[in-house]
Predict the structure.
Amino acid sequence: MKVIRSIPSMQHIARALQCSGKRIGFVPTMGALHGGHLSLIRRAKRDNDIVVVSIFVNPTQFGPTEDFQKYPRPFMQDKKICTKEGVAYLFYPQVIQMYPQGFRTYTEVKGISDVYCGKLRPGHFRGVATVVMKLFHIVLPNRAYFGQKDAQQSIIIRRIVKDMNMQVEVVVIPTIRERDGLAMSSRNAYLSDRERGEALVLSQALVACRGMVRSGERRARRLIARVTAMVREHRCVKLEYCAVVDVSTMQPLQRLAGRVLILLAARVGNVRLIDNCIIPVSWL
Ligand code: PAF
């Protein structure tokens, strides 16, 4: 595996691969790779000729009071994982290259970037959208892989790709969970034992919602009330929001129909965690 640190080198390699007819599968990450990332890399490897992974802790998607400085950066461990998984190129640029002095161009998606996580983390999705567009222009992927855990992020990226006529297929892979149900996240490493135990309520609340829908419940407010009540029983967990929305438009639903996305975000101690599930209501 080659580690590529410069943007022109990565662009040169990507162009050469495209010219020789190789299909590039791309997994953008911020490092601290876990099982969720592995499932993206393995799927990219299965679907494409070449896999490129990027590791870049993107400053523009962190708010001023967020964890940019202390975000985990275990580069040597990540590099070992990528080598073992058969990644061909690890793109690892520095902040100054991605955002040189004078940088002024940002990508914004109206209406979906500023709700839910976007409302609570102003500017977050602008940062994500901008860096992902930059990475797409550098890596020139045929397919790019994202996790369902970041549901709003995936919906935004799909929207940009469609709106900007980009020739990238966005592939979204189901959330990978720990044995007990906790969605894998680089931020889980910050949880104390007690918080780790209490954080389970998030996935349990989603399971409870699924059960309610299976039993015939179609009122979104009933699901939200159940999630709120379950979370309230855990002292370390503060629900930021729970929303029941249409999976492609992110419009809130009152009655459940079609493919329904239940989103939640919570603070567990000082750690912000998100989780979600998709329920195809008409199939149940
Ligand atoms: O999901 C992530 O890890 C990041 O938001 C991404 C897509 C790599 C952009 O920085």
Notes: DSSP finds ten helices and nine strands in the chain. The chain has a mean pLDDT of 97.
